[in-house]
Design brief:
The chain has 753 residues and is mainly alpha-helical. Strand 6 (678-683) and strand 7 form a beta hairpin.
Length: 753
């Protein structure tokens, strides 16, 4: 650079030197664009902010390794929902009939949108607020809505850890003791021998005695259900009969909630530097425990019946729109779409990371985990169904013997090969059909049950209780049962921690990026706030609030957020432009499949899903499954008026930022950063900030004095014009949602997306 240049004078003199943009560009040395940054941005009253953002992007923390990042994404996406929500929906919706819609929707909605979130986070290197403000300022409210929706599932996961703690530690001293204590009971042995052909298997159904003074008293609630079901609802949750009956705080769960959020706070207080290391254990340990449970579950008698039930599709269920709606909702929850955690984690990646491979890998592992957990649950359900079916045979055989002794039934109705001392389910079914055919008029008065294994397999435990009860019943038949109860508890902790850490990242990262608040103080404040809000879920009626948050308050806002994300990238920013920039970032062109999914299929499917969800809420009032103590059974109840008001408020608050930000920016009541041109040029340690250029200066800066002399910082590349099209040299940029022309440098986050 000439010694008399104004830039040189500034560097060697403390006096103020005035220089124009033209002088700067004319006298500056050729720019090394890999080491320089040109940021075109701007906000009213924030001219220096663009320069600060660029420095932040360079100083942004990064993952120590690719493995750490993958484990973090797996830990966030694979959570407690894979253990209880997926198996429950699979059983509720016909086993194999649910797997087919889930796989289809995972391919056409889940993987493409997961890839989209990974790509925009990695490209822009900001949290959800910054990403969507850049892509389309008028839809900048998407990021704020993500931050509002995220705490709901995190609070649900946080309160599930205390449930797991009570379940794990209390199991070994209560349920296991009751089961093992009844194995030597002669009455228990003789009753069960009738159905199990001489082999005495302990059944949890009759082990409900508790010691009161010197006497054994049978718990009526336990006797009507089962020891594990009783322990879950009464011992662990101490649940009330309805959401209106608060019942006060469960102090044991309250203490565990405090411990859970303390662990999360320590894990995330330093950002990915601290949370990344936690993922090595929290993401891998659950797979070890699940594999052990699966091996033991497959050895249980009747496990094959449960697994066959899981993989047997029912066509009538597959055509039910409700099954598809619930499958789509589970895809969103399973992959963490719309919560902001996926974008936050990917924003710490290098620009050349292969996020295309990451999307496919994490999605496959997520689905594999759901299937693995469901195999364990259905293996145990097959065992339990056989036990309950044999008990049904025993009870109804006793009724038939009573009718034979009182001559209500003739002995001629009993097939000659039937032996009541070794009665099988097949023999009972044959005898049942004969009696029903002969005594057709009076058959209903006999009170005999068909005792079909299929009926037992179709009986489901609602929501979270399915996995907890199924896993607990499996543990009662493990050698060293107390040890496995502790392993189960640790597995729940690790699954919950992974989800909570990812959700906290989805909240803290965009807020810290946007408002520059102190990371440690803000993170601790979020954890403290989450603990106090979580007290709502550790009441005796807290499980019903978990249902409200999981099934209703987060579902509709989450669907709206994800569909607007898709529209913002595919239709406003431009699918062709986005695919072109992905090609530059990845070094190869993504499959045409993603072009069509983002542009047409995914938005259409999500629009149908959103419409179906709204119609469903209008046709079927929201409700929950309540555990009625007197009946020892679940009953579906509708939410009362005050709960409905709370539910509507939660949905409205979660979606409110989207229309508010849109209106404010549409009527220019809130700046979108497009009315001020702020240029930050950095080379080495030298920074120039030029803003509020006059019209002539701005034209000279962009076009130079002669259009042909204009500098061309963008490397020559071929633009992506859609599937199957040729790609001529790009001569002009398409305007995006933030700027009116394409004069951005490649090499900065803002220029690359």
């Amino acid at each position: 650079m000439p010694k008399n240049s104004k830039v040189t004078q500034r560097e060697h003199s403390s006096e103020h030197v005035t220089e124009s943009v033209a002088d700067l560009l004319a006298l500056e040395e050729p720019v090394d664009y890999k080491q320089s940054i040109l940021n075109v941005a701007g906000e009213v009253g924030g001219k220096q902010k663009a320069a600060e953002d660029e420095l932040d992007a360079e100083d942004r923390p990064a993952w120590n390794s690719k493995l750490q990042y993958i484990l973090a994404q797996i830990g966030f996406s694979v959570g407690l929902g894979n253990i209880w929500r997926f198996p429950y929906l699979c059983q509720k919706n016909g086993g194999g009939a649910y797997l087919v819609p889930y796989l289809v929707l995972l391919v056409i909605i889940g993987i493409p949108l997961f890839f989209l979130e990974l790509a925009v986070g990695q490209r822009i290197r900001r949290g959800s607020i910054g990403v969507w403000h850049y892509v389309c300022p008028r839809l900048g409210g998407i990021g704020f809505s993500s931050c509002i929706v995220s705490p709901g599932p995190a609070l649900g996961a946080g309160t599930s850890l205390p449930r797991g703690r009570s379940r794990g530690w209390g199991l070994q001293t209560r349920v296991l003791g009751r089961v093992k204590g009844r194995e030597g009971d002669p009455l228990h042995e003789n009753r069960f021998q009738l159905a199990s052909q001489g082999h005495a298997f302990p059944t949890l159904k009759v082990s409900c005695s508790v010691a009161v003074a010197a006497f054994l008293v049978v718990e009526a609630e336990c006797e009507k259900s089962s020891a594990t079901t009783y322990f879950w609802y009464r011992e662990a949750l101490d649940i009330s009969n309805s959401i209106s009956e608060s019942g006060g705080l469960n102090w044991k769960m309250t203490l565990c909630l405090l411990v859970a959020w303390s662990i999360v706070g320590m894990a995330v207080v330093k950002g990915i530097q601290s949370s990344g290391k936690v993922m090595y254990f929290s993401s891998l340990f659950p797979y070890v425990v699940l594999a052990c449970f699966l091996v033991r579950g497959l050895l249980l008698r009747g496990a094959v019946d449960g697994i066959l039930h899981m993989f047997t599709p029912k066509l009538d269920k597959m055509l039910d729109p409700q099954v598809w709606r619930e499958a789509a909702t589970q895809v969103f929850f399973a992959l963490g779409l719309g919560f902001g955690g996926v974008i936050a984690f990917s924003s710490y990646n290098k620009q050349d990371n292969n996020c295309h491979f990451d999307a496919a890998l994490v999605s496959f592992i997520n689905f594999f985990t759901s299937v693995l957990a469901t195999l364990v649950v259905f293996a145990v359900l097959g065992f339990k169904a056989n036990i309950m079916n044999e008990k049904c045979v025993v009870e109804n055989a006793e009724k038939i013997l009573g009718y034979l002794h009182t001559n209500v039934l003739s002995r001629d109705l009993i097939p000659p090969h039937v032996n009541f001392s070794h009665l099988t389910a097949k023999d009972y079914t044959e005898m049942y059909k004969v009696i029903r055919a002969v005594k057709e008029d009076r058959f209903a008065s006999l009170g005999l049950d068909p005792c079909l294994l299929e009926d037992e397999l179709d009986k489901s435990v609602q929501g979270t209780g399915l996995a907890f009860i199924a896993f607990t019943e499996a543990m009662t038949h493990f050698p060293a049962s107390p040890f496995w109860s502790v392993m189960f508890f640790l597995m729940l902790i690790n699954l919950g921690l992974g989800s909570m850490i990812g959700t906290m990242a989805g909240i803290t990262t965009p807020i810290i990026d946007t408002f520059k608040v102190p990371k440690e103080m803000f993170t601790v404040g979020c954890c403290v706030f989450a603990f106090f809000v979580g007290l709502l879920f550790v009441q005796r009626s807290g499980n019903y609030f978990v249902t409200m948050f999981d099934d209703y308050s987060a579902t509709l806002p989450l669907t709206v957020i994800v569909i607007l994300e898709n529209i913002a990238v595919a239709w406003i920013y431009g699918t062709k432009k986005f695919m072109q920039e992905l090609t530059e970032m990845l070094g190869f062109r993504p499959y045409r499949f993603y072009f069509y999914m983002w542009k047409f299929v995914s938005p259409l499917c999500m629009a149908v899903l959103t419409t179906a969800s709204i119609i469903q809420l209008g046709v079927t009032p929201p409700g929950y499954s309540a555990w009625i103590k007197e009946e020892a059974a679940e009953r579906y109840l509708y939410f009362p008026n005050w709960a409905m008001a709370l539910l509507i408020t939660l949905i409205a608050v979660a979606t409110l930022p989207i229309p508010v930000v849109f209106i404010l920016r549409h009527f220019h009541l809130l700046s979108d950063g497009s009315n001020t041109l702020s240029v930050s040029y950095k080379k080495g340690r030298m920074m120039k900030d030029i803003s509020n250029l006059e019209e002539n200066d701005e034209t000279r800066f962009i076009l130079s004095k002669v259009p042909s002399e204009a500098p061309s910082p963008m490397p020559t590349h071929r633009s992506y014009l859609g599937p199957g099209s040729t790609s001529p040299l790009e001569t002009s940029g398409n305007p995006n949602g933030r700027y009116g022309g394409s004069y951005l440098l490649a090499g900065t986050p803002e220029s690359e997306l």
